[in-house]
Sequence to fold (269 residues):
Amino acid sequence: MDKKSFEEKSSEFSKNLAVGFVKKLLVFKNLDSTNLTAKDLARDGAEEGTVILAQKQRKGRGRFDRIWQSPKGGVYVSLILRPHINPEKVSLLPIGAALVVAKTIESYGLHPTIKWPNDVRVNGKKIAGILLESEIKGDTLNYVIVGIGVNVNIDSRLLSADIRLRSTSLKSEIGTTVEFFDFLRRFFREFDAFYHRFKKEQYDEIIEEWKSYSDTLGKVIRIQTSLASIQGTAFDVDQSGFLLLRTEKEGIKKILSGDCLYFDELDHT
Ligand code: BTN
Fold:
């Protein structure tokens, strides 16, 4: 049995990180939200490669201002990026982050899929979510925060009933507890590889690989935004990661954002 405390393990982990994306790792037992802390630090000038990690979050945030339930057992991490890219390419970062998480989960012998744009799922249930926040000054990108929440060892009883039904964890899928820092080591290895490709502008390769994990393409889906709902067959993503939908009434529509609902999983009651 490993008797080391979380603090000892996290300081060992930080010391042993091989050179790569992570320049500074800040580990917390409990935070309101790693994305909020990362944004504060980025505004104060924190360098690219600053990473905020928490064991729990009090006010974890999801897409569309939803709450991301964040009990102990999950991995909650936010990465500060300052890529020198055309701001139009930012939409590829959540796509890439989903790919990184999917590949990390796959390394445990599972078969994850990605629901557009960036929900990572196992056996049709959500295992991880990604929240990207960025700031553009003038026409340049100041910072990007990539926030990732992964249900690693979450005990589903700690989640509300509706979330419990639609989510799963790495622990319940593989049947054994996953060591927090082992997961992070694998995750950062994948992230390094992805970010290297991203900086070399290998955008098409990233999209192609994302497609190989997609469980959205080929499906009849509904895209829901606060203003509208549109239905059609998802048939491709373009070079920016936007979804192409073939609709009956409006022809081909390009979807920039929204909630993606699968028709075969909708609750019609
Ligand atoms: C989603 O709605 O699917 C995105 C969830 C993103 C949650 C992560 S957990 C780490 C980071 N900090 C936050 O407050 N949110 C993101």
Summary: The mean pLDDT is 93.
